[in-house]
Amino acid sequence: MKETMAPSPANLRALLSAATERLHRAGIEAPQREARLLAAHAAGTDLAGLLRIDGLTDAAHATFIHMLGRRLNHEPMAYITGQAGFWSLDLAVSPATLIPRADSETLVEAVLHHLPDRTRALRVLDIGTGTGCLLLAVLAEYGQATGIGTDINPHAARLAAHNAARNALASRCVTLCCNWADAVRGPFDLVLSNPPYIPHADLAGLMPDVVAHEPARALDGGPDGLVAYRALAAIMPALLAPGGTAVLELGIGQDRSVPALMRERGLEVAEIRPDLGGIGRALVVKK
């Protein structure tokens, strides 16, 4: 028999307290905040707006209970609400793509550092664009830039196109469904990619929210986690314009192996930029 929420939907404080306890027992981090986020989304408001209401309508209560059940099953919050923030963007997300993470913003920071002229009409390629987060964040910062995002998953390519329109950037980019960069021709001033980089044997040890819900194809880097980087290294010299820059996301412990792959193809390693946790996250290479 399914467990039900005892408090009345009109008693928001009791409702949140009961939800927090259930989330805590399920092993969800920051259960109080998660309960409040779910309630705010169900009520059609934000956390600040939630402070101004005493209870939920019957419809909002039903939505809250449904969403709570999904979160108790460790479905990521972003998939439940259908949205996530990244850089300055508000993005739609779906199970077709990885959820944008703050660590990936390190790549945008690296781009801004190495390409300081924000008036440049950069030609940008984002390989494995997913939600389009990297490409769209760069286009938002470089007002004259244009870009192409590619993804092997047609649902992801469509989602990236939707996010471009959602953030008023559709006039400066297109998204294509293809393997790596098969459907495009260089040269590009900037190439971005957050490829699959988790060694296959490590996938089972990821958090339940990730391993049970996010797309394995976007996570699985093969036996050593380097399959995607070998493919990227092989095509990067032809994609980059002379003096062009590529910024790639790295996984933990890949700050030696991946640069070596790029150097083998004649590319110069300009920087390995750490994320806020001190992990080498953004590899910057130049042609």
Automatic annotation (TrEMBL):
Its EC number is 2.1.1.297. It catalyses: L-glutaminyl-[peptide chain release factor] + S-adenosyl-L-methionine = N(5)-methyl-L-glutaminyl-[peptide chain release factor] + S-adenosyl-L-homocysteine + H(+). Substrate binds at residues 194-197. GO terms for biological process: methylation. S-adenosyl-L-methionine binds at residues 128-132, 151, 180, 194. One of its GO terms (molecular function) is nucleic acid binding. Keywords: Methyltransferase, S-adenosyl-L-methionine, Transferase. It is an enzyme of class 2 (transferase). The keyword ATP-binding does not apply. Belongs to the protein N5-glutamine methyltransferase family. PrmC subfamily. HAMAP family: RF_methyltr_PrmC (MF_02126). Methylates the class 1 translation termination release factors RF1/PrfA and RF2/PrfB on the glutamine residue of the universally conserved GGQ motif. This is Release factor glutamine methyltransferase. It comes from Komagataeibacter rhaeticus.
